[in-house]
Input
Amino acid sequence: MQWTVVVPLKPLARAKSRLSDTAPDGLRPRLALAFAEDTVAAALASAAVRDVAVVTDDPLAGRRLAALGARIVGDEPAGGLNAALVHAAAAVRRLRPDGAVAALNADLPALRPSELALVLDAAAAFPRAFLPDAAGIGTTLLTAAPWRELRPAFGAASRGAHLASGAVELAPGAVDSVRQDVDTGDDLRAALALGVGPRTAAEAARLLVPGQPGRRAAQDRPAGAPGGG
Output
């Protein structure tokens, strides 16, 4: 099964406020964009992904992510994360009504194409499925099979909300890169330890983070991506 991955991204100026203990105000928007770029690049390189749609109203993010090959969908409802995902899923299904859709967080800078493919292949067995985040409280991926509604319930304690909605929880397995989203400084350090994409590595190098920014192994770096810096 081939998937359309929908990635929501809020305006960069308002992104990643919980990184304030790690990154200054001027760097947080740059980090948020780098996270999104590395996430989208890895998703586009995954064998299970047909295309990626990013729902955002941020002009800079829209230009940069479109340059990677993503389709940009405007956040017309402006009603928050779940409304944006419902809107984007409807937009992509107007073009492909029988398509499988997956909502993916924009802050997965360590995402590996092969691990995303493993998760999506497992999700194909269910009408709706989700993957919990590394903390076991939230959700990083929610899927809907063809002709099924996405019904997103992202937010605080979204793992429980998605379980209650009837979505099947996928066994985490060896897919840490698909679970490690970044909201806090500790999350960023965990992502760096896994090995992040080149754009995040370049921005994280500006921070006083213990250790060197991780680098994705060359064999699992999206095609055409530059080396880490």
Observations:
- Strands lie at 3-8, 49-55, 71-73, 100-104, 128-132, 139-144, 168-169.
